[in-house]
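Hi all, long-time lurker, first post. I run a small reading group and we've been trying to get comfortable going from sequence to structure in the token notation. Rather than ask abstract questions, I figured I'd post a concrete chain and ask someone more experienced to write out its structure so we can walk through it together at our next meeting. Sequence below, copied exactly:
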Amino acid sequence: MGEQSLSRRSFLSAAAVAGLSAPLLSACGGGNSDAGSSTGKVTVEWWNISTTEPAKSLWASAAKEYMAQHPDVTIKLVTLENEAYKSKMTALTASGKLPDIFHTWGGGVLKQQVDAGLVKDLTSAIAPWSGNLTPISLQPYQLDGKTYAVPFDIGMVGFWYNKALFAKAGITTPPATWAEFLADVKKLKSAGITPIAVAGKDKWPEMYYWAYLALRVGGLAALKQAAAGNDFTGAPFVAAGQHLKELADLSPFQQGFQGAGYDAPGGEAATMGNGKAAMELMGQWAPNVEKTSGKGIGTDLGFFPFPTVEGGQGLVTEVFGGGGAHALRKGAPAAAVDILKYFSTVGEARKLVASGAVMPVVKGAESALTDPNKQAVAKTLAGATGFQLFLDQAFPPAVGQEVNDSVAALVAGQKSPQQVAQAITQTAKSQ
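-- Answer (accepted) --
Happy to help. Here is the structure in token form:
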């Protein structure tokens, strides 16, 4: 779930409202329409979640540059911390009034907004230039063959590992299968090394394991079928819980993991970043947060995809992750589409990519990546054959929360694999 740089949640800084100007919430969705904004002066209200540098300044600069080139357009930029943003957007969605341009992760929340008739179908509006975007980056924002948002970031979850600690435990290559992974966890423990850092308090980092295991056992088809039928009691989901229980039974996590936050002092990122654990399963933003929460481990840091599961239907090229995109409210000024086009030019995309704020979604921007770890993620994404959005974003909010809660209970030994699958199904059918 999820720099997320612009993608994930709890490590974003304290709530802030900033930007070129900050209109009252009641101004959302007001005034300008497609028909009336093609001539004369127009104001476009844009909400994003880029409260941290460098993205915060880069987006504000992009807005100023656009206005300089389009003097009849005023962009009102509102920047909110992740959780505050979600809270305010929930209220605005209920009221039926959304900002002209707004951040979206896609998935269940976007679907609810689309079903409520609040979001503009961008399929035809962006058709002349959407081919400049990588196809996999568009997938989380497509519903029933229509595109409802323009991505600016894409990423994936994988294992970040400490090469020095692996070598100390006698591990020469990263594990390719789940059996090899469990064997390596045992080798690390035998060498007196904490195998895995995880933020049990935040729950979503534990969810990553269950989600990836379900993906590896059943493949993308199983997840799509479960979502369509609101039924997660099938064999792949029970098996995912069983495999995760196998891992949890090895006591692989750092001491006090159940009270550890992701980017909190002494939390998951700090434990990994200070060289006190061999691995963490996290998104592409992990190296940055390891350096800000801990010291960072420099060239000892490596990356490998989540292993395959023996006998599973899922491929190692099927990835689990998320990103960020901009959607438009239905009736937003015509200039809003042009703004998204401007953000999607190679020049603007390269600025964001070069800063380390996002992963490339615009073709040609990938050459701006210089960090070898992010290059590894980009290479894995480039070879991806399927993409599964974070489960707590892909599904309706209540279902996503149940996934997080039930998986945390499984890791804590409070729920069985079958009880996890049943609890998620019960919540899904109640929506």
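A couple of things your group might point at:
The two ends are 21 Å apart (CA to CA).
The longest helix spans residues 204-229.
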